[in-house]
Specification:
Layout: E1 9-16, H1 24-43, E2 49-54, H2 62-68, H3 77-81, E3 89-92, E4 98-102, E5 108-112, E6 114-118, E7 124-128, H4 140-149, E8 153-157, H5 165-177, E9 184-188, H6 199-207, E10 211-214, E11 231-235, H7 243-252, E12 259-261, H8 267-286
Parallel strand pairs: 1-2, 2-5, 8-9, 9-10
Antiparallel strand pairs: 1-11, 3-4, 4-5, 6-7, 7-8, 11-12
Helix pairs in contact: 5-6
């Protein structure tokens, strides 16, 4: 397959989780629908290439499960029968970290492996565009270094309460020194619309560190409708057989323009989600 036109519109949700409570077909249908709305509303286009960048925790292995059900040969028939997808089909690329999901009407959506890592400082690092294995509990700088060594793109995402106090000071010092050739911050749609823009985003702007946006869905069935609704857009060449590498090259190019899209969380849903997450955390501690 030839590299697509340089003016190709690429839409990216850079913070995506899958959960057992999700209907996977509904999840992918919703993602494609949300991407379509964003392409039309923000760019006046119905022609776009969508990406879901997975950020799986150490306990999640959905990318591996999806990869086992790829539509590539008859020897995988049993795996395909056990696929979590019924109306979508999955197809390989030339990369181990990416696959192509195809809807029943023939539209494609790229799914790319990645991890969400908890550091010793209780901050998070997203290792995007890589199927590498990472260890929790290491220092922040070590985690970023290991992400880069694995060929991934490191992102430190905003989280409710996680950039305050001691952790905020640590991150501010890291941004001030920034010893890394590649580093991004992350924003997500769970940040409430009434919340002031975190000052560390302004610090990042001054330091030349860009912000990647993603939905960061929570582990509730209602959240399966969110992927693709909040992210960033760009334009550039894309190799359909090496989509992760193509996207990484665009992100590493300082001249690549990134356009934000999507809305932050409304107050009612934000409060509901915070209460729900506290209940989930208490249940996990009891288990």
């Amino acid at each position: 397959m030839a590299i697509q036109n340089r003016e190709n519109l690429i839409l990216v949700d850079s913070h995506v989780h899958l959960y057992n409570c999700f209907d996977f077909d509904c999840f992918f249908d919703s993602a494609l629908a949300n991407f379509s709305v964003c392409a039309k509303n923000y760019h006046g286009s119905e022609d776009f290439t969508p990406f879901l960048l997975l950020t799986e925790t150490r306990d999640d292995h959905y990318f591996q499960a999806l990869s086992r059900s790829l539509e590539k040969d008859s020897e995988r028939l049993d795996d395909r029968r056990n696929s979590p997808l019924k109306t979508w089909t999955l197809h390989p690329t030339s990369e181990s970290c990416s696959l192509r999901a195809r809807s029943r009407d023939g539209r494609d959506l790229y799914v790319v492996a990645g991890r969400q890592i908890v550091t010793a400082e209780d901050l998070e690092v997203l290792a995007l565009l890589t199927d590498g294995d990472f260890e929790d509990g290491l220092p922040l700088e070590t985690t970023v270094e290991r992400t880069l060594a694995a060929g991934g793109v490191p992102v430190i995402p905003w989280g409710f309460g996680k950039w305050l106090g001691r952790r905020g000071t640590i991150l501010e010092a890291l941004l001030q020194d920034n010893p890394f050739p590649v580093l991004f911050l992350g924003d997500n749609s769970g940040r409430p619309i009434f919340w002031p823009r975190p000052p560390l985003f302004d610090r990042a702007d001054r330091q030349g560190v860009r912000v990647l946006r993603g939905t960061d869905p929570l582990p509730f069935e209602r959240e399966s409708f969110r992927p693709g609704a909040f992210g960033f857009a760009t334009r550039g060449p894309l190799d359909p057989e090496r989509p992760a590498r193509s996207l990484k090259q665009l992100l590493l190019d300082a001249e690549t323009e990134l356009f934000e899209y999507g809305s932050l969380e409304n107050p009612w849903r934000f409060i509901r989600n915070q209460i729900s997450m506290q209940i989930v955390k208490r249940q996990r501690r009891k288990a």
